[in-house]
Amino acid sequence: MINSTIYTCPICGSNQLEIVKEEIICPQCESHYPKINDIPIFVENTFSYINDTYISLECHIKNIREYIESNQKMFPFQNGRISTLNKIVDSYTQNLVLYEQMSESIKKYVNINYILQSDLNRYKNDPLIGKELLYVVRDWGYSNESEDEISSIYSMIEKLIKKFSILDSILFIGCGTGRFACEASQIVKKVYCSDLSYRMIYLLDGILNNKSFNIHEINDSNVYSIDDVIRNFTVKASNLSSTVKNINYFISDVRQLPIEDESLNTVASVYFIDVMNIENYIQEISRVLKTNGVFINIGPIGYPYSNFVHKILPTEIKQIFKKNNFEIVFEEFLECTYMHSNIKLSKTIHKNWIFVARKKTENQVSINIDSVLSINTSVFIETKVEINNHGSSVFEHNLITKNGSVYEHSDLIIEILKQINGKISIKQIIEVLSENFELEFEADYLLSVIGKLIKDKTLELVQ
After folding, report:
1. 355 and 379 housed in the same domain
2. Within 13 Å and on the Cβ side, how many CA atoms surround 145?
3. How large is the average pLDDT for residues 4-17?
């Protein structure tokens, strides 16, 4: 059993998880979560996640090599610049060592057939310098300008935690390479770090295990002189105290956190709220927060995606929190530089939106097998079909609510939803279904799922 954490199965919610060799197994729903380099990967489809991560790393390596080769073809025409250009080539090549190490760390978990059937061109347009390099240099490179930026943000985080929360537990969503979480570990008893990026968590894992990484900052433009084109950093944790042992980090989707219900005092979002529509995961934030727990946000509202329909304004975000039983107890703006380097000829300044939302006390909903329900809002059913030489067959039905919550292998729940009409009880519905299906289920688990659907306003209790 995993006794020292509050980890739960992100699919069924069970906290009776078992560690078997390099896996975490949930006996209740039989889900398997691998541990790579002792990093738990709590995602819905670990098979696809690991293989896609490997493909993205290999494609990145391939893209960099092709980029170098295409530039080297033009070297004969660059009189007087060969020395500088060779420095850039060397720096890209040295940075590739890190990506090769990442790729090698998951290689043995990869399925060759999946790789062969995948579209290897989908990562063709990924950035040549990944965000993980930018963040790890900012977080752990200790340049004066980076420390100023980190100090501005973290001093605000610490102030808000001390003012509005309890120094017992905090989760950083989209934690990146973890500097803010490490700083918070000095004052908070238990710190949890979640990110969906293997690259980010790989670097955080190395930092917390006293490894160092040699990173070359490549400035092929926007600097004044040849001396500024390349800066070398040895990124590592400096003077980390023993309190970092209270940090638990894992890979997960913010929409399916492996955290027990109502177990956290604080959830912190630093430069994350504009990465994904808050409507997709606010119910999950509410689920893991204790009553009177707080959500702390710091960051711009820049939105990297193109569709304007998903670019929700701060006033709209505040309304979403209020509709989900939160009250906004603090709000202001903080200007500071973003990823600034003193050798650059320009800099980005963000006007960061800061707010604290407190989870209010809810009226408790009591449900049992005799409860009568009605459907409050429509749901969606995802059907997964396997196609092979023998034809096709359906192997999985998943229930997806309007707010983005996913319930895997939900055949029974789906059939129950089809019968709900606001007049008959859960018990009566099961009796009807038993006439046509051989049902196998645990009543407590069934009521737990229905309770979650009521909580996220998909279902409504009639009586």
Report:
1. no
2. 12
3. 83
